[in-house]
Design goal:
globular; mainly alpha
């Protein structure tokens, strides 16, 4: 297998693993509480990655100590908030809805970069953001503007949007890190910080809300998939592929995630994909193309 084909295979598997994350969270939403699922997922990840990444963490620690607030925010937004908010969201919305909204992350990044990094939006980018925003509204309303009133009572989509915002903000703030912080050291640091953030919420969910995690086959299989496939292997595959073909070419494979997710949701959960859903996805991707001038390219 040549280098390009191997990279494309790794990226395709990464998109599949990430799509499975949201489908699985929806599948077990009635039996595994959301914060508990996130906490045990990242605890399992920590068991594997902390010993592996500890040397890099130690080497980068002096630099990290110079930006303690930024490191705390990055750990909170990524490990602490992103997936947890998605898991809360899919308690009351479908995996299809969550995956369609996730595809808007690049647009949120475009929107957040100007105020945080001082790079103004060009007219083309502004138009692209507006088109993608129309797609998000179409997904939220399921094609009916009157549905917006029900969002107050069925706020799953809003929780997912909060997760989308948290990951976009994390992605933008990464650019503020000093050179020398990254890779395994950063990954281990964010996992540890994120777990510390999640712990009080996990305890509150368990004891105050009386929603304990039951250690059964469902939990073990769920945590194993989320830790091994959606976290560790996805991280390794993504980094390997980016190193082989570059971040720009790798980035277009993110658009496979909603495609895989829609298929998995229909096959495994019996969820319906409406014309409004497909129209919303088309607008989100069209807006991204207008803003960046790029569409996903097929491999030869």
């Amino acid at each position: 297998m040549n280098a390009n084909r191997l990279a494309y295979t790794l990226l395709t598997l990464t998109a599949l693993f990430w799509a499975g994350n949201f489908v699985l969270a929806r599948a077990v939403h009635s039996s595994v509480p959301p914060v508990g699922l996130a906490f045990w997922r990242w605890l399992a990840v920590a068991v594997f990655v902390v010993p592996w990444g500890l040397p890099e963490l130690r080497a980068q620690w002096p630099l990290m100590r110079t930006r303690p607030l930024l490191m705390l925010i990055l750990g909170l937004l990524s490990v602490g908030a992103f997936n947890t908010l998605i898991y809360v969201g899919v308690q009351t919305t479908t995996a299809v809805n969550a995956l369609l909204l996730i595809s808007a992350i690049p647009v949120f990044i475009l929107l957040l970069a100007p105020p945080l990094l001082g790079n103004p939006l060009r007219p083309r980018q502004t138009l692209g953001v507006a088109i993608s925003a129309a797609g998000v509204l179409l997904v939220l309303s399921h094609g009916h503007l009157a549905a917006f009133g029900s969002l107050i009572h069925h706020a799953g989509s809003l929780w997912v949007l909060a997760g989308v915002f948290s990951w976009a903000l994390y992605s933008v703030l990464l650019r503020r890190l000093p050179k020398g912080i990254g890779g395994r050291g950063l990954f281990v640091a964010t996992v540890i910080i994120g777990l510390c953030v999640l712990l009080p919420f996990y305890l509150y969910e368990t004891f105050a809300e009386h929603r304990p995690v039951h250690f059964n086959a469902t939990l073990v299989v769920s945590v194993a998939y989320l830790a091994v496939f959606a976290s560790i292997l996805a991280y390794l595959f993504w980094n390997k592929a980016v190193g082989m073909i570059g971040a720009e070419r790798a980035g277009v494979f993110i658009h496979l995630m909603p495609a895989f997710g829609l298929m998995l949701s229909a096959l495994l959960l019996g969820e319906h994909v409406s014309l409004a859903d497909l129209g919303g996805l088309a607008l989100i991707l069209a807006g991204l193309f207008v803003a960046t001038g790029r569409l996903p390219r097929r491999s030869a």
